[in-house]
Amino acid sequence: MTNALEIEDLVMHFGPVRAVDAVSLTIPRGGVTALVGESGSGKSTVGRCVVRLLKPTSGSVRIGGVDVTHLTRRQLRPHRSTVSIVFQDPAGSLDPRMLVGDVVAEPLRLSSARMSRAERQKRVAESLGQVGLRAEVARRYPHELSGGQRQRVSIARALISKPSLLIADEPISALDVSVQASVLNLLADLQRDIGFACLFITHNLSAVEYLADEIAVMYLGQLMEKGTRSQIFSSPAHPYTQALLAAAPVADPVRQRARTPVLLGDDLPSALDPPSGCRFRTRCPLAFDKCATDVPPHVKIGNGEAACHLVQADGTRPDVRAGVPE
Amino acid sequence: MTAGARILEVADLSVSFVTESGNVSAVDHVSLDLAPGEIVGVVGESGCGKSVTAMSLAGLLPRSARVTGSVRLRGTELIGAPETSLRRVRGKEIAYIFQEPMTSLNPVLTVGRQIGEVLQVHERISRKQARARAIELLSLVGIPSAATRVDNYPHQLSGGMRQRVMIAMAVACNPTVLVADEPTTALDVTVQAGILEVLRDLRDRLGTSILIITHDLGVIADIADRVVVMYAGRVVERAPVTELFAHPHHRYTNGLLNASPTPGRHAGTDRLQEIPGLVPVLTTQPDACTFADRCPAADDTCRGSAPPLAALGVADHLVACWHPVEAT
């Protein structure tokens, strides 16, 4: 069976800015992979390359086995309905002058399939129903809705063409905590019921703990580690993944205060001139000489892989809190 | 603790705004206090009035705001105080840090000049002395090679560094109270950890009292000694931090805790608990519990009269609810 998404050696440079460098990622049909990273890690750029809002500098993107890397706009048309994207800020990604019904129907209007007006309206009502909105919402404008409702509208728009792959780019980051939970639950339910594959892009590791099958961690344009959800949470191999997990405060004062803090320093290197060797080395508490000279290979560990000189195939992994293993 | 031990006492603070579409009530009878060297966290979702509360402490709200109630700093009333005395309070007694350091810093002045400005205004020292103090302050907030960084412009610094500069400016005159309004919201999580460390360190070394405003329960769990939970302009619960997380009495607090993704908390389940409904926008504060429409335990009492903020179980654990979640 073909995979829903195969990204191979994806490179995206904007002039001198090396936003994404040699990222490879595969999502099986119906699988959910979280792409986690902090600002400037290139995670959104990967998403934009997949939906071909950007044309990659090199490498390849295959969706359902079809190579879309070099297709022209016209050639892409028939593939547009197989992959959809939901953006972070629903206020900015919904046209304020369009009725919600027209916003949601737009993917259908643009697809090649002919459809009567009545049928389109029926599909819009269905799609709105799927995301927990009443059909009357179709006659409202985006500004009349709350942030959570607007994000539901963007999900309805993304799913109306029945895509096999959904790119969710920080879909809950602009929402309040209580609303985040409902949108996250909605996405999880829809994914389970419909079975589309999903690339969930986020800066917040804990948001994907019960949603993702696999987690890939990016830093400054490169993949540091990927693995199954349980492996990333219970035994992260890469120092950056460990630091990311350690830095996210736990909403429990007793546990939070008992944790060992890992402070990385906050001078992020620039993607204009990324560090030689391992890109994380300038902030890594465990960095040594080799990290500056050699680019660490991706070493298989457990059900995943990590790009760190201290990780070995026999399962040896560093611990940022304890220092360098002997 | 007696009232005299409080540095800052806010009592029955109410703020409403006159807008084109009528009155909007933002803060309703909020009471909170701050002891010397204490870190109090105010937590709530957008629109709950937490930032308006913070801004009203030193009279930073626009003229369209109607502020009533009392804010006492070491016993001196600030609400209704003349602008000249408020100006002496701002920066020197009560200092602020805001969410987005890039918009709070002047892009055409070096960070040294900006920190120096605060000192020159309040302490009448020379430019040279101010520069030396600026370098000291930059190293106090953990900026490496402060002596060269002092001549940097804001755009030359990373987001975390800029927030450290903001903190350096805020503590330049050794303020009694530091108000930090979402100080880490715009920052990455690995950078946030460092900023929270700086705030804690300032409290320990200078004894500064800190009021930290955030929507993030993780930040509260990390840094606050006591917590004030706000909802729709009112304080719904107030308690020491461990007490609040262990025994939330208000169903909104409980809902927030269950809705926050926390590693481990949701083990065994595959969903987060939702709080149904929306935060109301209020033109007037009704005599009812404002959370009633979203609360599973609400009845006619809740819709008919506003619950007072009263102690339940432990003396310093206050909750405004007619049917609180009992301590277990």
How would you describe what is shown here?
The complex is a heterodimer of chains A (326) and B (328). Chain A is of the alpha/beta class. Chain A has two domains: 5-219, P-loop containing nucleotide triphosphate hydrolases (Rossmann fold, 3-Layer(aba) Sandwich); 237-326, no CATH class. Chain A is 30% helix and 21% strand. Chain A has eleven helices and twelve strands. In chain A, the strands form two sheets. In chain A, strands 6-7-8-3-9-10-12-11 form an eight-stranded mixed β-sheet, sandwiched between helices. In chain A, a hairpin with a 2-residue loop joins strand 1 (5-14) and strand 2. In chain A, helix 4 packs across helix 5 (117-130), helix 4 (100-110) packs parallel to helix 6 and helix 5 crosses helix 6. Chain A is globular, with a radius of gyration of 21 Å. The model of chain A has no long low-confidence stretch (mean pLDDT 91). With 328 residues, chain B is an alpha/beta fold. Chain B has two domains: 33-60 and 78-93 and 176-262 and 293-328, Rossmann fold, CATH 3.40.50.300; 101-174, no CATH class. Helices cover 33% and strands 24% of the residues of chain B. Chain B is built from twelve helices and twelve strands. Chain B has helices at 50-57, 83-89, 101-104, 111-123, 127-140, 146-149, 159-170, 189-206, 217-223, 241-246, 251-259, 300-304, and strands at 8-19, 22-34, 39-43, 65-73, 76-77, 94-97, 177-181, 209-214, 226-231, 234-240, 310-312, 314-319. In chain B, the strands form two sheets. In chain B, strands 6-7-8-3-9-10-12-11 form an eight-stranded mixed β-sheet, sandwiched between helices. Chain B is globular. The two termini of chain B are 26 Å apart. The mean pLDDT of chain B is 90. The chains are: A alpha/beta (326), B alpha/beta (328). Chains A and B meet through helix 7, helix 9 and helix 10 of A and helix 7, helix 8, helix 9, helix 10 and helix 11 of B.
